[in-house]
Amino acid sequence: MFSGFAIEGRYEGDLLLLTPAAVRTDLQRQHISKDMIAYGFGQAEKLGYKAVLVEGNPQNYHARGFRTAADFGILPGRSVHLPYIECLMVKELQAGALAKIKGTVEYDFYKTLT
After folding, report:
1. Which residues share a beta bridge with 103?
2. What's the CATH code of the domain at 60?
3. For residues 70 and 104, what is the distance between their CA atoms, to the nearest angstrom?
4. Domain residues for 11?
5. What is the DSSP string of the chain?
6. Cβ-contact 4, 16 below 8 angstroms
7. Residue 110: its pLDDT value, please?
8. What is the Rg, in whole angstroms, of the alpha carbon atoms belonging to the chain?
9. 113, pLDDT greater than 50
10. Total structural domains within the chain
């Protein structure tokens, strides 16, 4: 659900990338994914992570404290294909952490894993 992430080779150990969480159809609408993600935020904060990035529908993530990453100087790069810039979001786990985290998000390095 969470993966370590760096922007432009920086901030490793500070950032996590949240990937989709799935819940079995018959167990949906019981706040299971919400609770899992909230638990993950707490664990990430305890481990010293400062922020979490996510790509998705802003309507699904704003309620969990995510804001448009571009507002903090974190921009999608050429390997990030979004319908709208607002679909790249970030959530601070430590207050003020995003004042020092800036750059362009790229996924190119994932190609080496195939």
Report:
1. 74
2. 3.40.630.30
3. 10
4. 2-113
5. -EEEEEETTEEEEEEEEE------GGGTTSSHHHHHHHHHHHHHHHTT--EEEEES-HHHHGGGT-EEGGGGTEEE-TT---SSGGGEEEEESSTTGGGS--EEE--GGGGGG-
6. yes
7. 59
8. 14
9. no
10. 1
